[in-house]
From TrEMBL:
Descriptive protein name: Lipoprotein
Source organism, top-level taxon: Bacteria
Amino acid sequence: MIKSLIALLSFLIIFSCEKVQENNHSKTWSLKSEDRSKAFNNDENVVLPVLFDKRYFHGYQLSPDSNYPIYSHTDRYIGCVTVSFIDKDIEKQKEWLNFDVANNVDSGDDPDDEYFNSLNKIIRKKLESNVDGYNIIAEWIPAKYLSSSTFDYVYPYKKNYYLYNREKQSWYFIKEETVFDSSDGKNITKLTELNRMINNSPSNSSAKKLKIESLNNSISLKKLDGIWSSECKFRDHVFISSTIANAQFTVTNRFSMNAELKKTGVNKYEFYFTDFPPLIPLPDEMQNWSNLDNKKPVGSFEMINESKIELTWFGFYYKKTKKYIQTENPFSKNSSKAVIINCPE
């Protein structure tokens, strides 16, 4: 494992330069090069690099743990991107463990160009003959989290994960993770983590299929612009704006609230209060906003489809008592969850 890690780091140092040299054998499989690699993230404007462009491909490698194939690119403009290939058959994933040594390609104490070229060839032969049998996951660390001179991580940093949809040629946001330090190898993404992200296990093929279908059917926040309520004649409602990733709640006799939306997964958001417009008098316990923790989500919602949302209500976290107040869901008196529908304006 140590040899493999040294080899990978050496490889990244060699190839992570601003002016990428063209490589005679850097042609990837026949995915369209015009793919714009759109990615749905916390920021709807995020667009990943065109990851299948040969400019970002410097040869296949093994992961730091030597148990799945990857390729990587780093520069001061896009940051660090690692594209991982995870066999859909979890039993076959074992075939990649120490794949270089098993095929008589040894990095030794000082990996060189011959090692990297040989490793690229043997991985290419096995991987590209059955690339449709793999889930492709990209891990992206934006450039602002890397030192511009050394490309070392700037803690804390965020890394974002995306699943590739071949049919739509797009990257769909899976999750965002914050890394605070290098303890316990947190900089290295484990195979078990990637499998968990897409629910890949030998015993739950049905659940895995549903998970992948969910990722491939991500709904853009723009589709939710407008008014939502449990019944369109009901006075209580929420107005969603994708332009500013904001939700405006109007809850009769309780409060009017502006809330910031933060994406937490595919079709899932949490919302955090930002302010309370003086349209509706606030209850006494909410008069002083500083008593309420705006770092705690007020609730969350999941998009069922473009016209239906399941909204879960938590309430407001009261700092002094360390308990939630106003916990009744504005759209359901009997449950913390409520289904709300899109209403004509």
